[in-house]
Amino acid sequence: MSSSNYKTIVKDGLWDNNGVFSMLLGMCPAMAMTTSATNGFGMGLATAVVMAASSLLVAVFRKLITPEVRIPVYILIVAAMVTLVDLAMNAWMHELYKVLGLFIPLIVSNCLPLARLEAFAAKQPVLPSFLDGLFMGLGFTIALTAIGAVREITGNGTLFADASLLLGPAFKAIELRVLPADMGVLMMILPPGGFLVTGLLVVVKRMLDLRAGKEIQMGGAHSVA
Amino acid sequence: MSHAIGIPVAAPHATTSNSAGRVMATVMAALAPATLFGFWLYGWPAVYLWFITVGSAMLGEAFCLRLQGRQATPVLLDGSAVLTGWLLAVSLPPWAPWWIGVFGGLFATVLGKQVFGGLGQNLFNPAMVARVALLISFPVQMTAWVAPLPLFSAGAPGLIDGLRITLNGMPAGYDAVASASLLGFTKTELSRGIDLLASLLQAPVPGWYGSHPGSLGETAAWLIAAGGIAMMALRIITWHIPLTMLAGIAVPAAILHAVDPARYLDAGTHILSGGAMLGAFFIATDYVTSPNTPRGQLIFGAGCGLLTWIIRTFAGYPEGVAFAVLLMNSLTPIIDSYVKPRIYGRDRKGAALEPGK
User: Fold this and answer.
1) In chain B, which residue's Cα lies nearest the Cα of A188?
2) Whole-structure pTM value
3) Which of A99, B104, B257, B345 could bond to B130 as cystine, CB 3.0-4.6 Å?
């Protein structure tokens, strides 16, 4: 595989075919876990690790997995990876685990990893599959962090609150207060804010793509203008 | 839209003189007396808030139209954005700070209406979407009611003082007039274990002409009802939604008040307080977000009323008109798909009728 293909995989995962903003997959964690940038970042990283590992494994075993049983096999592989991440976070990032804990097991049923396994890893060699899983996961992380950041700033007036729990005490410095306390729009950290911010960020991405003169990659929806 | 001569024009060929602009203008005229009365009751801060809210709603509409590359002026002139801002303004606490009006007005037309595709496309009533967004986001400011201080009366804020209240929030000197609405007051007292028989003795007495704390346009219940009846006489709205909505509030209220007057408010208080009248005549009757058929409208109105009463009586918020209307808005497509008028020449199931029978 040529290096330009790897470049495409990286660009697709991070931006052009972003899991949240272009494919609108994995909406459940994108809404539920983005009340703060730190939560979104942690959830995104956990998903990225699971996606990279399970894409790698599926690509390794792709010739052995028969089409008839592929979905149960994918689910089992993803579930095994999720269990590993779950236990690891519980052991080494316990504070964050207390916040994200409920949602980590749900990565199994996130449609983004399954979609990439089915669409990419099942048909491609090991290295591209691993990169696809990794960069799709990192794109997911970027999206969740962005949604979380907008919701946290507008809803709570802070940015990266509690980041030191996730990244270690050295990152205390990036915990910012952008607006004075009690200035936030409470709705933004409640469920409606998740829908509003996700929708508006999809619009922002499309506007940036349109301005750059790119073909919009979104489920057959072509702009009329 | 103009048609070239010679090309057959699709039906309907004969139309009434009704246009969106004319309907909106009539609704505004019907709403004007209650609004002007509200201005008099609550003074200059209310006037400023009204202008800010309506202006923001129009600004949001114009901004979205510009984004779509459309001419803003003709669409703004149909008055729907003005009416949305107006309905929102009369549902706000009259002395709310300016940014409440700006946030609400923009939210109503941009996120409540234009993202769905503009007039006629929105699923939810834009004014109520904005009101609920404000109530959830800014619970303190949205429940800061004031006792009426009629214009030019002693102690009422003047032209400049009023502007200061709108821009800077309520100054300390006016703390004395801050007050709870009747529904909020009784709810708080009930949660403290004081029953209605005791708390109503100290409650702010609802003046018959609306001189009690509440939203800008809601306390003048009779003027709102008069505007609504005028709209019925002009055939802008029908009786189905207002009557069933008020009945939906009054009937359960009357029954349970008879059972336990210490726990449940009576029907008259329910209908005359809060946004019941405004909701029944001006908000639930929105053409876009209510069912099309009379039978569907009966279901819709009754649902709005019943939900309002349930939310007021059992839920955490003292007032529930906005929530009830939004919940029933979401059911409108379902109601419309189940309650369909019979097609001419066919029975209710859609089978052709036998000729001559």
Assistant:
1) B137
2) 0.85
3) B104
